[in-house]
Design a protein that fits this description.
The chain has 478 residues and is of the alpha+beta class. It has a domain of 236 residues: Alpha-Beta Plaits. It has 15 helices and 19 strands.
Length: 478
């Protein structure tokens, strides 16, 4: 009897040890994922590199059988965990990147969602065609850009949603649906700007435009004159097709001085062919060096601002094609530090409230210790098509590049400042962009996006088992 008890105990112990070793080994094998902001490292189950549609369908069906969570990732330049979730299988869509159809005469292209803007530009540029809307860099995937409903420098088109003709969506039940304004319009306006929560975007059909030749016009102005300058010289001048501005972050002219660049339709479009070769920016050593200096001193910020300003003043009167104006190089901004990172914030404010908004923002930032490296200003035309639309009227978008620590105390410190900045933005009838770290409170989210509860309810309607999830959803829905 005693021998039997010893045998049972030994068997039990061996079983527990085996289970513990298995569990420990499984935990060790789980990869840790983080996005570009490097503030939200999370253990996931695995990363699945995707190349085929049938494989995607199979994964979703298997996930339904095993009740597995799915997240969807492209270049992962969002910074709030929008592309992963604890214990989830992450679909890496970068290899799902074929050009499926291209009709130059109709100015239409259909691409798989992992294709980048660079992939598309290389196909359409020889035909004298360009994209209508994209970010200021061409490194991102079409699916990721659709999921955050991007905007860019173009001032004659709306947000990205305005350029999408249709797309195909792999739903939570494994079915594939054609989505457009005419076919399943509810999903059209939910998925664009829906952060991958309604399914896998398989391919997208986009409307293209002419690759025009632009002549640059650059000016240095005071921030108080920016609204009137824009109204008179940009908005009411049909020759201006694209627009970009920056506002100073250097100590002496902080939030006071600006330089603007207008891309004006060149009088002689026959000259376009001379400038049509796609530029390949490789000279990043100097901009990277001066940006590095600006991270650590006011003197460095002054030097970097003056160099930027002089460079853009020298470009006054130069020529650039539309495709190349959309082809900025971000390699010089790459930043590696064991203790620090760089985050983005983007705030939208009505055009007529710009100067008073800057005054209020100045009051906040003068009191706070926030290392702002750059502020870019763009124009965003009113577009309320997407359920989570950010441009409820014509607005200026201010994109902040911020250097911050990665420790818990540094994150908490930044959160307090960011929430103050968002409060100021909301007080001026503004809004903020959702692809970034979850610093905004739930109250701020509801104020900026009054349809957010409708969005979450529709999410449950189309994905009742919550098959598609990410940290953004976890933070604000749960």
């Amino acid at each position: 009897m005693r021998g039997k008890r010893i045998f049972v105990a030994a068997a039990f112990y061996t079983g527990c040890l085996t289970l513990s070793i298995h569990t420990y080994t499984e935990q060790l094998s789980q990869p840790v994922m983080e996005d570009y902001g490097r503030l939200l490292p999370v253990k996931i189950k695995k990363v699945q590199k995707m190349t085929e549609e049938t494989e995607l369908q199979k994964i979703i069906k298997e996930a339904n059988a095993s009740n597995e969570k799915i997240s969807i990732a492209g270049m992962q330049h969002s910074q709030g965990g929008h592309t992963y979730y604890p214990g989830s299988t992450v679909l890496d869509m970068k290899g799902y990147n074929k050009i499926l159809e291209f009709h130059p005469k109709q100015k239409i292209i259909r691409v798989q969602s992992g294709a980048t803007w660079n992939d598309i530009q290389r196909v359409i540029n020889p035909y004298g065609l360009a994209l209508q809307v994209m970010q200021s860099q061409n490194i991102f995937t079409v699916g990721g850009s659709l999921s955050v409903n991007v905007h860019g420098r173009d001032i004659r088109h709306d947000a990205f949603i305005d350029t999408v003709q249709s797309f195909r969506l792999l739903m939570a039940d494994g079915s594939i649906q054609n989505i457009s304004r005419e076919e399943k319009p509810d999903l059209f306006y939910l998925v664009i700007g829906g952060y991958g929560l309604f399914g896998v975007v398989l391919d997208v059909t986009l409307r293209l435009t002419e690759d025009e030749l632009y002549k640059k016009r650059t000016r240095v102005i005071d921030y108080k004159d920016y609204t009137s300058y824009f109204r008179k010289n940009v908005e009411n001048d049909d020759r201006v097709r694209m627009h970009l501005a920056r506002i100073s972050v250097e100590p002496e002219s902080f939030l006071q001085e600006m330089y603007v660049t207008d891309y004006m339709l060149a009088a002689d479009q026959e000259r376009r062919k001379r400038y049509s070769a796609l530029k390949e920016d490789t000279n990043i050593v100097l901009p990277k060096f001066f940006l590095g200096l600006s991270r650590y001193s006011g003197w460095g910020k002054t030097m970097f601002w003056n160099i930027q300003k002089e460079y853009f003043e020298r470009t006054d009167g130069s020529y650039e094609t539309r495709n190349n104006a959309m082809r900025s190089d971000t390699a010089f901004m790459e930043y590696e530090s064991p203790n620090r990172t760089e985050i983005l914030q983007e705030y939208f404010v009505p055009i007529n409230k710009f100067s008073v908004y800057i005054d209020s923002l100045y009051d906040v930032l003068e009191e706070e210790d926030l290392n702002v490296l750059n502020i870019t200003v763009r124009y965003v035309k009113k577009n309320e098509d997407a359920v989570l639309s950010y441009a409820k009227q014509d607005m200026f978008a201010l994109v902040f590049l911020i250097n911050q620590g990665r420790s818990k105390s540094e994150i908490e410190k930044t959160e307090k400042v960011i929430q103050k900045m968002i409060d100021v933005t909301l007080q001026h009838d503004g809004s903020y962009y959702l692809p970034y770290y979850a610093y905004p409170s739930k109250q701020q989210l509801h104020q900026a996006y009054p349809r957010i509860e409708e969005f979450f309810m529709e999410k449950k309607k189309y994905d009742s088992k919550e098959r598609f999830v990410n940290l953004f959803y976890k933070e604000y829905r749960e």
